[in-house]
């Protein structure tokens, strides 16, 4: 048995030595002998991945003491929790590539001690940039997975919060964490999310937005089926409602699922405002969505086919604004839509201050010049500007892009068949939404299938005293959030 162990150890040692020689081909990999220990040891690490202060303060200082006589003694003396003695080279190599220091006593010894000395420099926690709110917390996710989990743990200090980590990407080896509340979340959603991520066969995973496109129920749909958020409070509330959260190392945003269409029009600030004010802003966003999608298509349909429905008081204004325009309504609308999209893209790609200047000055100059050159009418210019503003009211960035794309088929349908074309295009969109699902739940819930109790937190938000149940379409293990009897307003003693 001893002879067999020696053969295995010798083969493993040879493999480790050969692999270390391959790693030395990289200029930032260091492997050298430390002579101050009772027996010579080899220290290996990537200098671009480790923190020199941790290396000298917590590791090297113990090699010159009596604790450096053996790996077991060194293991006990190093004041770092993340450490292990291992013979598996694959595990050792993975730790080297993540900022660990590997210590080996003698080239013929099969065992190595790896200690965590990773350099953890990153961006500090700042306020949200995309989902900014006037009222509520001002913390946003950063690119560190451990720090993001800390932000979630602070908001949900419960032992029922489960975090399952896995590695995605054969080259990037990106850490992905699935978060859920074990006593609330339906196991089916957790298993579905876990299986979809585990089944991914990719080499490089740079950001969670790429992961979302691969695990959605229908990746070909223009509608997002998972909510991407940069707010820890929004993800924590989603977990409390029975959703599943996903975080990725190197990505400053998280993902919540399952999701429904209405939640893409809900700003998390709505929950921090009084219920009547939050409901007003939600209704305003729904109206803005319809206006942004239908305004220009109705303009084309009415001026091409249905000019009879224009009021007599408004007809002279429209005729005078279009009397010198040489283009039909479709081409006129397309020119303005293309111009506004150019301004958006230019403003997004340029530096912040320059982008704001380009957006404001470019819009004023181009709009004024287009009207004076008789390339477009004043009325269409107003509609285009209001449609662009209406699309910006959507809190989720991916949904605002969806609204921008949806306008084009409606405009083409309006040119072909007028108002009938708009209804036909709307029927196709509605049919697609009826078939769409997010982790298995209907995308149009609670309207289809109808759940009357869940309408309390949809287009309008009712007071918290009546929202004591979690959404029924999540099929949670515990559907009750709190005791409704204790949520009612009680009279004071002196009343």
Automatic annotation (TrEMBL):
Protein name in UniProt: Spore germination protein
Entry keywords, A to Z: Membrane, Transmembrane, Transmembrane helix
Pfam family, one: GerA
Family, per entry: Belongs to the GerABKA family.
Statement: the UniProt record of this protein carries the keyword Signal: no
InterPro entries documented for this protein: Spore_Ger, UPF0353/GerABKA_families
Transmembrane segments annotated in the record for this chain: 287-305, 379-398, 410-434
Residues annotated as signal peptide: none
Lineage of source species: Bacteria, Bacillati, Bacillota, Bacilli, Bacillales
């Amino acid at each position: 048995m001893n002879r067999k162990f020696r053969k295995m150890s010798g083969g493993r040692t040879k493999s480790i030595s050969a692999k270390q020689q391959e790693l030395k081909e990289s200029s930032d990999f260091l492997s050298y002998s430390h002579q101050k220990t009772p027996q010579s040891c080899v220290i290996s690490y990537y200098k671009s991945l480790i923190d020199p202060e941790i290396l000298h303060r917590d590791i090297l200082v113990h090699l010159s003491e009596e604790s450096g006589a053996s790996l077991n003694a060194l293991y006990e003396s190093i004041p770092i929790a993340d450490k292990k003695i291992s013979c598996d080279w694959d595990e050792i190599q993975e730790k080297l590539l993540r900022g660990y220091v590997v210590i080996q006593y003698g080239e013929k010894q099969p065992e190595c001690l790896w200690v965590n000395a990773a350099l953890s420099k990153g961006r500090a926690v700042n306020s949200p940039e995309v989902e900014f709110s006037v009222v509520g917390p001002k913390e946003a996710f950063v690119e560190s997975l451990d720090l993001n989990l800390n932000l979630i743990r602070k908001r949900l200090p419960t032992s029922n919060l489960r975090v399952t980590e896995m590695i995605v990407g054969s080259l990037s080896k990106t850490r992905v964490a699935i978060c859920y509340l074990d006593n609330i979340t339906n196991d089916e959603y957790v298993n579905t999310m876990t299986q979809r991520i585990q089944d991914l066969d990719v080499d490089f995973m740079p950001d969670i937005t790429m992961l979302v496109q691969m695990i959605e129920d229908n990746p070909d749909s223009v509608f997002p089926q998972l909510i991407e958020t940069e707010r820890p409070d929004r993800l924590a509330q989603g977990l409390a409602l029975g959703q599943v959260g996903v975080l990725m190392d190197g990505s400053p945003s998280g993902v919540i699922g399952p999701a429904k269409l209405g939640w893409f029009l809900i700003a998390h600030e709505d929950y921090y405002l009084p219920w009547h004010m939050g409901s007003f802003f939600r209704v305003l966003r729904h109206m803005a969505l319809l206006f942004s999608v239908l305004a220009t298509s109705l303009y084309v349909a009415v001026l091409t086919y249905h000019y009879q429905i224009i009021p007599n008081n408004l007809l002279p204004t429209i005729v005078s604004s279009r009397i010198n325009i040489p283009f039909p309504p479709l081409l006129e609308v397309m020119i303005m839509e293309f111009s506004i999209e150019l301004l958006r893209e230019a403003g997004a790609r340029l530096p912040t201050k320059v982008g704001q200047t380009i957006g404001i000055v470019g819009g004023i100059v181009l709009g004024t010049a287009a009207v004076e050159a008789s390339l477009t009418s004043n009325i269409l210019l107003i509609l285009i500007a209001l449609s662009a503003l209406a699309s910006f009211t959507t809190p989720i960035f991916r949904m605002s892009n969806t609204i921008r794309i949806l306008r084009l088929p409606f405009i083409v349908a309006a040119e072909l068949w007028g108002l009938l074309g708009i209804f036909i295009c709307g029927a196709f969109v509605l049919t697609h939404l009826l078939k769409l699902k997010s982790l298995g739940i209907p995308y149009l819930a609670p309207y289809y299938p109808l759940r009357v109790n869940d309408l309390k937190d949809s287009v309008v938000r009712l007071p918290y005293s009546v929202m004591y149940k979690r959404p029924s379409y999540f099929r949670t293990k515990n559907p009750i959030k709190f005791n409704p009897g204790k949520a009612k307003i009680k009279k004071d003693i002196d009343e």
